[in-house]
Amino acid sequence: MRTDVPQPIRLSDYAPPAFLIDEVHLTFLLAPNATRVKATLSVRRNGDHGDPLKFNGERLTFISAAIDGQTLGADAYVVDDEWLTIANAPDAFTLETEVEIDPEGNKALEGLYMSGGRFCTQCEAEGFRKITYWPDRPDVLSRYTVRIEADRAFHHLLSNGNLMESGELAGGRHYAVWNDPFPKPCYLFALVAGELDVLEDSLVTMSGRTVALKIYVDPGMADRAAYAMDSLKRAMKWDEEVFSAEYDLDLFMIVAVRDFNFGAMENKGLNIFNSSLLLADPATATDADYERIESVVAHEYFHNWTGDRITCRDWFQLCLKEGLTVFRDQSFSADMRGEAVQRIKDVKALRARQFAEDQGPLAHPVRPSSYLKIDNFYTATIYEKGAEVIRMLKTLLGAETFRAGMELYFERWDGHATTVEEFIRCFADASAQDLSAFFAWYEQAGTPTVTLDSHYNGTAKTLTLDLTQSTPATPGQPNKKPLPVPVTVGLLDQDGRTLAFARDGQAADETVVVLDQAKTRVTLTGVDRPPVISALRRFSAPVMLKTDAEPKDLYVLLAGDPDLFNRWEAGQTLARALILSRAAGHPDDVGEERYAEAIGRGLDDQAAEPAFKALMLAAPSEGDLALATPAADPKAIRAAREALRQRLALHLGDNLKRLHLGLQELGDFSADAQAAGRRALRNACLDLLAANPSSEVAELALGHYRAAGNMTDSMGGLSALMQIGGQPFEDALDDFYARWKDEPLVVDKWFAIQARDPSEGALGRVLGLTAHPAFDLKIPNRMRALISTFANFNPARFHDETGAGYRFLADQILAVDGFNPMTAARLVDALGSWRRYRPALGDLMRAELQRVHDTPGISKNVFELASRALAN
Ligand code: TRP
Ligand code: ZN
Question: CA neighbours within 13 Å on the CB side: how many for 140?
Fold first, then answer.
């Protein structure tokens, strides 16, 4: 048991930094096991307090410190595991420090570490303190000059900003000096050194400056950076057009590394990416990979303004950069790939991750007020719900005022670290509106439920909408207040035609009702025929909507709502009800038939895009269904979901086979959205057919796998074979491994697909795979491919009645926590949701969570999540 209970950090305790650093010169003498870091800082006291100087420093071997050239004697400073303290520091002075660090031994992948024989860094949120002594907080902004010295074998020496100088040194070494003219917080510092190939391009910005673009990758991989480069250029142009945001340095670099805790990092002028989110070619990457690469390249680039030029005052303001930047990358992707399809995918992800978080023990506001480890707060709530809040702001203010608010924000806060309050103030000023009620979206956790009741008066031709809202209690927030919820509404008649109406005398096809009290009543007039209501179009607010709509209304929406999001949503709502009713022992055969027919008509719709149809074909995920059930039983859910899929396969079989054949790719591969949409639909057809396997379908799946000319189709075939099971699947797995064993990103896919195997023996296979020679717990991508995939995407097998799945996960959490706490903590959630499952399972989950919690020496990261999940 832990005795030293870690103390939380609170927003209310914020105090400005005691010392500021205007300039810093860093010198790195790189060596894998013993790197020397010399720092020369111009420090000045911030205000007239007499506090001692206290700089963060962890895992540093102290060599020396000097003030204004005078080496400090042992009585002038104190060094412990977390701090360098200097009691009597002058008001303005030069501090020189020298430390030694061990990048090779750093398996936490924070600070300076080695990946694939190269040096690289990850400093957000608190990694810079593992490089040198520093006030490691985002509101200390400094200008950096960085000198890197290394053996010539480390061919490229990179850091932020512009290259000032480089050359040879004695003893087979060389050096480079970089200067970043933009003051930045230390979490945006980056350094990379090693042998790399580079893909180069350039772009002329809106003001006519030429920017050199360089993407650095593993030797031999430069061709695979082409799509990332193309995405980068499109993102740069898009930001100029949509937000008047121009790039500011003469050089923009991206480096891909294999060993990385998250997706990617926006270091100023030197983004560092997990190679899985950068490298792509048709043979090794799926369309989903291409899509993520496009969005993450854009995301990190967009941070140049929303994150780097304007940063966060403290880590409680994380959504200021993350929610806003996700909103920006989602808007970009919508423009690149189609609004409706993008919105559906974003909402699916929001519900799967953020709604789940809101219903669990870790529910927290978009701007939390306390934490133990900030690493644990890079959550779906900060990112995805943070983006929804910005989207609502845009809906409420209108596109033009929203843009004016953004431009005011860029102008007012450029070069500063600021807060969410100041961000919202820009929109209040730009719109001359009081946004104080809106601010509650940042402070209140939980997903509101909005209920819509309607009454149509055929004589008066009026439609009365009664909207109410309530938000359930979340940990630490028992009482909730009403939030301003924008509900976008349109009407259809019973034949599915758009039905016009008037609101406050204004004719409209669509209107935004703002529900800003516990209850609101709105009356629409001029409603000539009995309406079907299409509410919360485009998912206008991150809420759960309950309506009095009957299945017949949902079928009208499914057939023809001009809002494609709601068309898809109607199908999901129908499917969810059918599956859950079957899982509860009340199958509705007639309803399932009717649903299958309606989906069939949707497939025949010539006007609909293939990508949209592919989404229509997919049943709600097992995770989505579990969220909608109290005391969830993952096996029963899976069985009921499969039953519906089987009925669809039976009912639509010929249609699915015809489409599968007709969509076969002829000609060259294209990664664009249209071609990807056709592949998505073709694979969705196969996936559904596999739910009702015959020998004909098994042949089809095998043929699909064998004929695949790209990774999307290979994986589609493999996944269909997996559903069918048996020897053909085993043979395909062996074939796949033999073919791709030298491609780490593809081997990750090989591990991941086995982790998703729904068949009886899957848990045993996953256990066995941890001993596979290619498995390595220390490589986050590989670890996640097997372990996170199993725990999060194979509910029927993870929730094994014996508890063996839980025991397996707990063991892995403890093993990873021994060297990489940040990544270990991300595994805890799969056990932390124990209250949502039927008690026989929930109790076993809780017991494993308790075992993790009680293990001596676990990290603060894992301790925080385990103890919150166990709390009453
Ligand atoms: N700021 C990064 C982003 O763009 C994510 C990030 C935060 C991160 N902390 C990290 C990446 C640690 C890698 C490691 O969203
Ligand atoms: Zn980000």
Answer: 27
Domain assignment present for residue 465? The answer is yes
Given a contact cutoff of 8 angstroms between Cβ atoms, the answer to whether 162 and 139 are in contact is no
* 8 A C-beta contact, residue 225 and residue 281: no
Q: Are 273 and 131 in contact (CB under 8 A)?
A: no
> Are 387 and 458 in the same domain?
no
Q: Strand, coil or helix: what is 108?
A: coil
Indicate the burial class of 626 (C-beta count within 10 angstroms; 0-12, 13-18, 19 or more).
buried
pTM of the predicted model, to two decimals? 0.98
User: Tokens 């019973």, residue?
Assistant: 494
Supply 267's token pair: 């270091």
Nearest CA to ligand 1 atom 10: 124
Measuring from atom 11 of ligand 1, which residue has the nearest CA?
262
Residue finishing a domain among 541, 564, 592: 541
Q: In whole angstroms, what is the distance from residue 336 CA to residue 328 CA?
A: 12
Q: Is the Cβ–Cβ distance between 387 and 323 less than 8 Å?
A: yes
Identified catalytic residue from 291, 294, 300, 622: 300
Q: For residues 806 and 827, give the distance between their C-alpha atoms in angstroms, rounded to a whole number.
A: 11
819 Cβ inside 6 Å of ligand 1: no
Ramachandran assignment for 161, one of left (phi > 0), alpha (psi -120 to 50 degrees), beta (any other): left
The residues, ordered by sequence, that sit 6+ positions from 116 with a Cβ below 8 Å of its Cβ are 194, 218, 257, 258, 259
Range of the domain at 849: 741-872
Q: Which ligand is nearest to the CA of 321?
A: 2
Active site residue 696: no
Is 171 part of a structural domain of the chain?
Answer: yes
Q: 264 CA distance to ligand 1 centroid (A)?
A: 6
Q: Is the CB of 124 under 6 A from ligand 1?
A: yes
Segment (H or E) for 166? strand 162-169
Contact predicate 785/828, CB 8 Å: no
Tell the residue number behind the tokens 């189609």, with chain if given: 338
Task: Report the CATH number at residue 158.
Answer: 2.60.40.1730
Q: Are residues 842 and 813 part of one domain?
A: yes
Q: In the structure encoding, which two tokens stand for residue 698, read together?
A: 């098994």
Q: Are residues 787 and 846 in the same domain?
A: yes
Q: Is residue 165 located within the same domain as residue 29?
A: yes
Same domain for 434 and 351: yes
Distance from residue 264's CA to the centre of ligand 2 (Å) = 8
How many domains is the chain built from? 4
CATH of the domain at 490: 2.60.40.1840
Q: Which of 513, 541, 569 is the last residue of a domain?
A: 541
Distance 292 CA to ligand 1 centre (A): 15
Residues 81-106 have pLDDT tens digits of 999 999 999 999 999 999 999 999 99
Residues of the chain scoring pLDDT < 70? 1-4
CA of 294 to the centre of ligand 2 (A): 14
